[in-house]
């Protein structure tokens, strides 16, 4: 019995150094994807930083203090070229909405998390569209569909990446 317990490979392993910062660093790395040299005439590129934030928050609510949304949103605004304050406001509202969802739901399955993420991603794209419209861009609402669909389809990939990062950072 003791020999079997000692041969487990998880004994003596623990969280990696600075494990509490890995979620924030991964969201910032996803926000940096907007700096890739991709040239396009239409705005099809989704907000990968927000997708990663939602994936982390749905997986691990305990590592996210609500105030983290403001500095991460500021970093996203600076990297993506959004007006400063847009991601701060939307990401903070998303964190608060997810806190409410955590308190209201008894359990969540994969499909419910994907539906919650889809609603939050729709809210993010709608806010970006509205701010662009206020600034004078004559855009129909249909222009948010390509980045919205791409971000909804990218959410399971982001959730998988987040689960692997979380497993690695906790030493499991």
TrEMBL record:
Keyword Transmembrane carried by entry: yes
Domain of life: Bacteria
Transmembrane segments: 21-45, 78-98, 110-127, 139-162
Keywords: Membrane, Transmembrane, Transmembrane helix
The protein's name in its UniProt record: Rod shape-determining protein MreD
Organism: Sphingomonas telluris
């Amino acid at each position: 019995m003791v020999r079997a317990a000692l041969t487990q490979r998880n004994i003596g392993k623990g969280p990696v150094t600075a494990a509490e910062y890995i979620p924030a660093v991964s969201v910032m790395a996803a926000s940096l994807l907007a700096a890739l040299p991709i040239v396009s005439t239409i705005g099809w590129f989704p907000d990968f930083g927000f997708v990663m934030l939602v994936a982390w928050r749905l997986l691990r609510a305990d590592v996210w203090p609500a105030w983290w949304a403001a500095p991460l949103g500021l970093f996203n605004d600076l990297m993506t070229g959004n007006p400063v304050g847009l991601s701060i406001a939307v990401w903070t509202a998303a964190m608060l909405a997810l806190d409410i969802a955590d308190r209201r739901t008894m359990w969540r399955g994969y499909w419910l998390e994907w539906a919650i993420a889809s609603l939050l991603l729709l809210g993010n794209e709608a806010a970006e569209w509205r701010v662009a419209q206020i600034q004078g861009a004559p855009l129909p609402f249909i222009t948010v569909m390509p980045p919205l669909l791409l971000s909804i389809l990218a959410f399971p990939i982001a959730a998988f990446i987040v689960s692997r990062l979380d497993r690695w950072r906790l030493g499991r």
